[in-house]
Design goal:
The complex is a heterodimer. Chain A is an alpha+beta fold. Helices cover 32% and strands 25% of the residues of chain A. Chain A contains 7 helices and 10 strands. Classes of the chains: A alpha+beta, B mainly alpha.
C-alpha cells in the first residue's frame, strides 16, 4: 500500500515534518489506528537501522555526570515535569495509547466492585480468561496509593511480573494446549489495565480482535481497543477505556471478539467471542 | 502491520520506566539509561563524528529525557523513537550552531549518491564503513541506491527532506517517496533476513 499516509508516517518517525504538520499528524494518531500501524512499521525500521550501527559503549562514569547535573538542577524540588503535568492526564494518555497501539482481541472478565468507590480503597481486578469463562480475583494496591502515577506503576509492575511468572497469578488458568487464554489486570479507579493473551486463533484477512468491557447492570459497552496480534498469537498490551457513564454497577464483563475490520467505529461487539464469557 | 509478539512486553516496560522517571524515580531513570545509552551513543557519534562531542550531547539528551519524561505520550511514538528524536534534535542543534558540513553516510556497496564528507567526518565514516559494510550489505543491498541515499541522509544528517532533495537533485516528492520506501523496505529486508 503506497499512500501519502505512509509517507507522513515515515517523515514523522524521522522527525522530518514541519512543526504544524507534525502537530496535525499527532492529532491524527489519536483517532486513526491505520496511521498508528504505519508509524509502528516505520519505527521498527528506524530502530533496526540504529541498532545496526557499530556498537559503542558510553564512557564509564557518564551516568554519574548526568546525575550530578540532575542534582544541580533539581535540588530541593522534583523534576519540572513531575510538578507541571497532571498525573491523571499522563496516565490517561498512556492508557488510550495502549488502546490504539495495542489492539485486538476479545476478552471477557466479570468482576464485582462491592459497592465502593475504587479511589477509596484502590484494588486491581485480576481476571483469568479462557474460552468461555472468566476467573476473578481482587488485589489491593499496596499502600493505597493516591496518585495515578503510583497506581499505574503498580499495575504495570504486576502485569510484567505475571508475564514473566504466570504461576504467580492469583487466578487459575486453563492448562496449555486448551485453546486461547490469557489474563487481564484492571484498575477501576483509573479505567486502565493490561491484558496478556496467547494461543488465540489466527484471524482471517479483514478481521481483527477487539477488546470490550460491558457493565452488566446498565448494559453500557465500552470499547477498550484493537489487539495487534497480526502474525503472532501472544502478547501483553495496555488498554484503557472511558469512564463509565452513570452510577457504577457492581459488575463488569470483559471479552475479546473477532470483528470485521471494514466496519468503522464499531460500538458494540458483533463478532465471535474468542476469550471471555460467551454468555455475556 | 503492527509488530506483534514478545517485544510488546519490553515496550510496555519501557513505557512504565518513562512513567516512573517522569514521576521523579531516579532508579527508573538509571534503567532507561542502561537500555538506551548504547544505541544513542552510537547514533550521536554517527551524527556529529567526534566521540567527545557525542558524549556531551548524550549527557544533554539524557537531561532532557529526565526533565520531559512525564510528557512522553505513548499514543504518539514508541519510547525508543521518542528518545531518538530528543537525541537527534540535540545533535542537529549542535551541528547547526557549529556550522559544520552535514554528515552523510556512504552506501555500503558504493552505489548511489556519493557521500559529501570532508576532513574528520571522512575519516570517521571510512572507519564506520569498514565496520558496517558487511553487516548492512545484505540488509541494504536490496534497497535501490536512491532510496538508500535519501534514507541515510534523513537519518544521519541535519538535512530536511527539502534539502535532501536539492542535494540529490531530485524533486521533493520523489525524495519523500524514496525515504518512505527506504525505511519500510529496510524494515522488511531486515525482518526477512532475521534468524
Amino acid at each position: 500500500m503506497k499512500t501519502p499516509l505512509e509517507e507522513l508516517a515515515c517523515l514523522y518517525v524521522l522527525d522530518q515534518l514541519e512543526e504544524q504538520k507534525r502537530a496535525e499528524f499527532e492529532e491524527r494518531l489519536l483517532r486513526d489506528p491505520a496511521a498508528v500501524a504505519l508509524v509502528r512499521e516505520a519505527e521498527a525500521g528506524l530502530a533496526r537501522r540504529i541498532h545496526e550501527l557499530p556498537p559503542r559503549e558510553p564512557p564509564v562514569g557518564l551516568l554519574g555526570r548526568i546525575e550530578q547535573r540532575l542534582d544541580q538542577r533539581t535540588t530541593g524540588a522534583p523534576p519540572a515535569h513531575a510538578r507541571g503535568i497532571a498525573p491523571w492526564a499522563a496516565i490517561a494518555r498512556w492508557g488510550l495509547a495502549a488502546a490504539i497501539v495495542v489492539g485486538l482481541g476479545a476478552i471477557a472478565i466479570q468482576l464485582w466492585q462491592r459497592n465502593r468507590a475504587a479511589t477509596d480503597r484502590p484494588v486491581v481486578i485480576v481476571v483469568g480468561l479462557d474460552q468461555g469463562r472468566n476467573a476473578l480475583a481482587e488485589l489491593p494496591l499496596a499502600g493505597s496509593p493516591a496518585s495515578a502515577d503510583a497506581r499505574f506503576i503498580q499495575l504495570a509492575s504486576l502485569a510484567e511480573r505475571y508475564w514473566d511468572k504466570p504461576g504467580d497469578l492469583p487466578v487459575k488458568m486453563n492448562s496449555p494446549g486448551a485453546g486461547g487464554r490469557g489474563y487481564a489486570l484492571f484498575d477501576p479507579g483509573s479505567n486502565q489495565g493490561f491484558i496478556a493473551v496467547q494461543q488465540l486463533p489466527a484471524v482471517e484477512p479483514g478481521q481483527r480482535y477487539h477488546l470490550w468491557i460491558l457493565d452488566a447492570a446498565s448494559g453500557q459497552v465500552r470499547e477498550a481497543g484493537v489487539l495487534p496480534l497480526a502474525g503472532s498469537s501472544r502478547g501483553l498490551y495496555f488498554f484503557s477505556v472511558a469512564p463509565a457513564a452513570g452510577p457504577k454497577s457492581g459488575r463488569l464483563d470483559f471479552l475479546v471478539t473477532v470483528e470485521n475490520a471494514a466496519e468503522p467505529d464499531a460500538t458494540r461487539p458483533r463478532g465471535r467471542v474468542v476469550l471471555g464469557d460467551r454468555g455475556i | 502491520m503492527i509488530p506483534p509478539g514478545p517485544n510488546d512486553s519490553a515496550i510496555a516496560e519501557e513505557i512504565a520506566l518513562l512513567a516512573q522517571a517522569g514521576a521523579g524515580d531516579r532508579d527508573a531513570f538509571r534503567r532507561v539509561y542502561a537500555r538506551y545509552s548504547g544505541p544513542l551513543f552510537a547514533l550521536a557519534v554517527r551524527l556529529v563524528g567526534d566521540p567527545g562531542d557525542a558524549e556531551e550531547l548524550l549527557q544533554d539528551a539524557f537531561v532532557k529525557i529526565w526533565r520531559n519524561a512525564a510528557a512522553y505520550d505513548a499514543r504518539k511514538s514508541r519510547p525508543f523513537t521518542w528518545v531518538v528524536t530528543i537525541l537527534r534534535r540535540t545533535c542537529i542543534d549542535h551541528l547547526r550552531k557549529r556550522r559544520r558540513a552535514p554528515v552523510t553516510t556512504p552506501m555500503p556497496d558504493g552505489a548511489g549518491a556519493p557521500p559529501d564528507v570532508a576532513g574528520a567526518d571522512a575519516v570517521r565514516l571510512a572507519v564506520d564503513n569498514d565496520d558496517e559494510a558487511d553487516r548492512l550489505r545484505g540488509a541494504l543491498a536490496e534497497i535501490p541506491p536512491g532510496q538508500r541515499s535519501a534514507l541515510e541522509l534523513a537519518l544521519f544528517s541535519d538535512l530536511t527532506h527539502a534539502e535532501i532533495a536539492r542535494r540529490l537533485e531530485q524533486p521533493p516528492g520523489t525524495v519523500k517517496s524514496w525515504i518512505r520506501r527506504g525505511l519500510l523496505g529496510l524494515r522488511a529486508t531486515l525482518n526477512n533476513s532475521a534468524p
